[in-house]
Amino acid sequence: MARAANCPFDPAPELTRRAEEAPVSRVKLWDGGTPWLITRYEDVRTVLADPRVGVDPGRPGFPHTNAVSKARDTAMKTLMQLDPPDHTAQRRLLTPEFTVKRMEALRPRIQRIVDDLIDGLLDGPKPVDLVAEFALPVPSQVICELLGVPYADRGYFQGVARTLVMDEPDPGRAMAASEELNAYLEDLVAEKNARPGEDLLSTLAVGQFRTGAMTSREIATAGQLLLVAGHDTTAAMIALGTAALLANPEQLALVRDDATRAAGAVEELLRYLSLTHTEARRVAREDLQIGGRLIRAGEGIIAVKNTANRDPAAFPDPDTVDIRRDARHHVAFGHGRHLCLGAPLARVELQVVYGTLFRRIPTLKSAVPLEELPFDENAIFYTVRELPVTW
């Protein structure tokens, strides 16, 4: 559903209309499927936490985004496509690597990465594309170091990731890109097994591959999810969040002038922007009632985090960005057992970015009018493709 051209940070008008008039309703998909669209905050949280609702894309009735996602998700099962007990077992292996304490320990290194990139911006020409020169390099470098992927290969995996997250019409091309990235990561797993380091792939190679608990393909598949999602989502939030703050200078000033507001700014921008276009897709495993409607076993469900985070029952004056708001109960990272594994890492990265960028470049401003920015609707993650800035 298309967004309004003059309101690039708001949900699509049709989604907002449904949230107001028909919060639990049927929609028609590209393949003729008619899943339920769930749009209000409490109903979305209920769906995401209900054990009677599954994520297995191979189950009949699952509402696939398009032909590419159907081919990819049914062939490559990651945490996002697994139901218990498989999901529980795999998540248990990865969760200790993404605890809040571990991610907080990375803060000094992330700060150094951000400062070095800002040094480069200040020493370079103006205007500059903040996406290419800052928003993308920050999370790419962080996730590479965390996983143990050579940063020199970033051009390769960023290109593959672009193929995987765009609304690519050719399933064959997307599957080939996914297989190519898996092969690359399997080779890395073999290298880590032979010469382990202090990174996540080494930890999995030694602790899981050597013991037979996970195959190299399973580790590579998990690595692909972390590599693609770990840099693409955060890059999108850095770019889109900066664009939103530049469009709301009074909010930007609050962040710039008080470093303690960075954490609150992150939560509010996550709520306000909700950048995942495909939303949370599920399928009912049993009959259940949502919002007074009966959803039968086998029927698809799309839980819309975008409108849930703009629900006035949960967030007063929801269409206004206010970093002083307590927005920590948003569902941008999901809810329930599929709550985003990388949320602690994303929070630290975004806090460092928003708490540093505007302080170090206090006169930062967009080099083009908001209406001329190229927003990316044809992708899993909504963002701005280019953000020319000057100061």
UniProtKB/TrEMBL annotation:
CDD domains: CYP105-like
Pathway(s) the chain acts in: Antibiotic biosynthesis; vancomycin biosynthesis
InterPro entries, A to Z: Cyt_P450, Cyt_P450_B, Cyt_P450_CS, Cyt_P450_sf
Keyword check for Magnesium: no
Entry's Gene Ontology molecular function annotations: heme binding; iron ion binding; monooxygenase activity; oxidoreductase activity, acting on paired donors, with incorporation or reduction of molecular oxygen
Keywords from the UniProt entry: Heme, Iron, Metal-binding, Monooxygenase, Oxidoreductase
A Pfam family per the record: p450
Annotated PANTHER family: CYTOCHROME P450 YJIB-RELATED, P450, PUTATIVE (EUROFUNG)-RELATED
Entry function: Involved in the coupling of aromatic side chains of the heptapeptide of vancomycin.
Family: Belongs to the cytochrome P450 family.
Name of this chain's protein: Cytochrome
Natural source organism: Amycolatopsis orientalis
